[in-house]
Amino acid sequence: MQQSVMKAWWESSHMAGGNAAYVEEMYEAYLDNAQSVSEQWRAIFDNLPKVDGVSVESKHSVIREQFRSLAALGPAARAGGAVAAASNNTSDEKQVKVLQLINAFRFRGHQHANLDPLQLWKQPRVRDLELSHHNLSEQDFHTVYNVGSYAIGKETLPLGELFQSLNRTYCGSIGTEYMHITDTEQKRWLQNRIESVQAKPEISRDEKVAILKGLVAADGMEKYLGAKFPGAKRFSLEGGDSLVPMLKGLISHAGACGTKEVVIGMAHRGRLNVLVNVLGKNPSVLFDEFAGKHDHSLGAGDVKYHAGYSSDFATPGGNVHLALAFNPSHLEIVNPVVIGSVRARLDRRNCTDGSLVLPITIHGDSAIAGQGVVQETFNMSQTRGFKVGGTVRIVINNQVGFTTSKTEDTRSTQYCTDIAKMVQAPILHVNADDPEAVLFVTKLALDYRNQFKRDVVIDLVCYRRHGHNEADEPNATQPLMYQKIKKHPVPRELYADQLVAEGSIEAHEIEKLISDYRAALDHGACVLEEWRPMTEHSVDWSPYLGHDWDMTYAGDISVEKLKELGTKLCTYPQDYELQSRVAKIYQDRESMIAEEKPLDWGMAENLAYASIVESGNKIRMTGQDSGRGTFFHRHAVLHNQKDGSAHMPLAHISAEQGKIEIFDSVLSEAAVLAFEFGYATAEPGCLTIWEAQFGDFANGAQVVIDQFLSSGEAKWGRLCGLTLLLPHGYEGQGPEHSSARLERFLQMSADHNWQVCVPSTPAQVFNMLRRQILRPTRKPLIVMSPKSLLRHPLAVSSMEELAEGVFHNVIGEVDELDPKQVKRVVMCSGKVYYDLLEQRRKNEQTDVAIIRIEQLYPFPQAQILEVVSQFSHVNDWVWCQEEPQNQGAWYCSQHNFWSCIPESAKLKYAGRDASASPAVGYISVHNQQQADLIADALTIK
After folding, report:
1. Under CATH, which architecture does the 810-938 domain have?
2. Which of the chain's termini has less CB crowding within 10 Å, N or C?
């Protein structure tokens, strides 16, 4: 080919500019049928290079790079290459433009889709979807073009027919966003499913009637509640009625695909409707809740639109167990809880691909865009420690956030679902007034999730017939929207009219469906045909009910067994090369096993885990540094310095041991802690642990601690044995690395809701962890875990102390003091004890006794009274703490301290002054404060 001809061809619209995506379309057409492209294109593709003799035709990204590289060579170099001659003919140019048009609809068709039932959306004009933008016109409608990879089942179509098909597929009641996905297989799969039926498959009469029944139930429930309890808050589903047939269809299809359990998380909107019409809750029970009736034995309780529920649901594949998670008012926080629960259920079923348990999370449009925990949960979706094979995420998009409808006030993106693009999830927007389209995207979403084990989002675009709640007046803030809503028929009416018009059902049949449903509500019995008694749930909580926090248990273990476990803990592959500091730690651990050295914190903790898994129990631990330990003490996961491979000795304790998982988590507190809460509430047989990098960082998960962990049992009767390890202690590291905010946990302590412990020795942490799993009691355990004590020369234990098998809620005086000579008793918790002990010994004092309270809640009053009984003559008592006076245990537990001292005695505070900050940032100031508070505690005036 002459250089001038080659240059003219290359600089034509075929290859120049930003047409890489369209070159790919031509190439895909060539792969489908080589004769479908012109001779010039065929020559290019035939001469593409091969790697090691193997065609690279499936590597689309590589092909694109080859074209870009070729373009960069310049006309002369290209002229000497293997590119065949081509002529700049008009038909070939238009063929490329047709493929560009197809691609434009795939990319941007959703922006012209008919998504809003109210027709209020003002979508911008998208020129890419216009024929003229591609130098095409209606004059080309009768010209037949190759359609490339457009999956309509034909290789060629007249342009007019193709243009109609593209509009039906991408600009009807469904708007699909998937071209942001980089994986070609996923994109082609979605294209085949959507384009082959032009986003509107044929459905049977039975399916249509099932949809109608769901709409009748959704509408009937809301109207019944509105008439029976006018003005009562119910967070009506009206406007988003299609959610009911959507969920029923999703669960039914999941069961047909082999799913055994479905866990659902949702906020308020439509929750009561879902409880009755999807999970089968008895309407009479709901009506009693509206009437204010309740069982006084159920604790504090919660409002009805926070309640969870469980049932079994009949599907073509057998019964599926449903669980709707309890949810507080914090909107999206329930989502990681649901996914954690799903992970526990999958683990229990030994299912690694997610096929047996399906998570469904239902979001509000403003909440999914506005709540940071959504991003955190998406980020977890494919990580090793948190993935569940994908989540089906449904957005009830009623286009109003509380009272805010202007998108520029609720988000900075076009769609509320754009956050899902961070994990390349496909997003299926659908008009909720087209329930058949809703059913189509529902099945498509589940099939995608099952095929690719990834998240998928359905944006159910609807409206809200009432205000945020039924007492609100929406016209005050959305007058134009609510003028439209007032005149807009409900989805049931629209769909019923459609079915009557097409002859699928008679009008009198519809009236019968409506009257039958209302009669069922009047009767008060279950209205869900698919409801079945629960038999599919796979965990029994009955062994964990009705136990006191201080019940006795068999926790002792022989020294011989500890040595045996210790030997296994120190065993790793011979070819493993450990980092030098880690190697030294393991050498020291071998000395500890031989009782040549006392046990330190890291060894005692690992021995606790070894003994737990050796007895058949499971352990799951997550945290941002949990494998190594933030403070370089745990080293439960070893890393080979030669090849980076990991080895966990705890996974090789015995052939029949329980499973242990330790994951370094994503850099999140809220979503990860919520996930672990969900896991622990679904798996009572596992010691589930979350470790904060520093205890202060639990601030980022405060909503989980407040609304789930501390009050879940009181509100919902949900037992949970989750353990929180929160590094805590004042070592001069500043405000964000000192305090786990002990006072907050103590302030929320009531009703024996959890345990708050401050262990001070390796033996204490060993027996505390074992107690948490060996007792059948399932209460959260909050641990103020140490930092400097991990290597403190006095914070050591013997094998015998571990073997004793008892966690001491209080530890009395350890030095041989004459009780009669004691004039002051200092009570304390945690690291400050060692500062007090060392200074007292340095002072050679014998008139001050020091008592450690290792469990601050539930407060062990009886045990403390027994320990301090020898000091009944002492009138000078002190509570010493490192935290400022307005923090720590002083104010929250002072009443408990008073209850343990003689009536005539005085109780004094020794510690830092009250402070707005948890700790000072200057080491010199810290040291002076620490010295002052120790002196104040020990000096008798």
Report:
1. 3-Layer(aba) Sandwich (3.40)
2. C
